[in-house]
Design brief:
Layout lengths: L45 H4 L2 H9 L7 H8 L9 H16 L7 E3 L5 E3 L1
Antiparallel strand pairs: 1-2
Helix pairs in contact: 2-3, 2-4
Length: about 120
């Protein structure tokens, strides 16, 4: 009778600190950072991550494991592991939704997360 495969073992650096899934970081697998999925991504500015709209969106969201509390805790500590692509995508969606819900009659848009800039 075939034996079940053992559960893969990950160390803390290989797990997303938000959802505890595999973060797929190339560096934890011995590859160069340029080979990592994150090298091809744009990450939000810290001011965007600390925005009240993002916190509200994550608090009311349905993504398992991703919450405003976990994000706040992660931002307040030195980084020990990368987040995963799925969590980054969810954060970006929440940020996009919060920007889209701002005053649509405003002649300005959210630029670098530090304030409005004229279009």
């Amino acid at each position: 009778m075939p034996q079940p495969l053992p559960e893969p073992q990950f160390n803390a650096a290989q797990l997303c600190p938000l959802c505890q899934g595999a973060n797929q970081c190339a560096m934890t697998l011995g590859a160069d950072i340029s080979d990592c999925w994150c090298a091809k991504q744009a990450f939000p500015k810290l001011t965007q991550l600390l925005s009240g709209d993002l916190v509200v969106g994550l608090s009311t969201g349905d993504a398992v494991g991703l919450s405003a509390d976990k994000l706040a805790q992660l931002l307040s500590q030195p980084a020990t592991a990368c987040i995963c692509e799925a969590c980054l995508s969810r954060i970006k969606r929440e940020l996009t939704a919060s920007v889209a819900s701002e005053d649509k009659n405003s002649p300005s848009g959210l630029g670098d997360g530090l304030g409005y800039e004229v279009k």
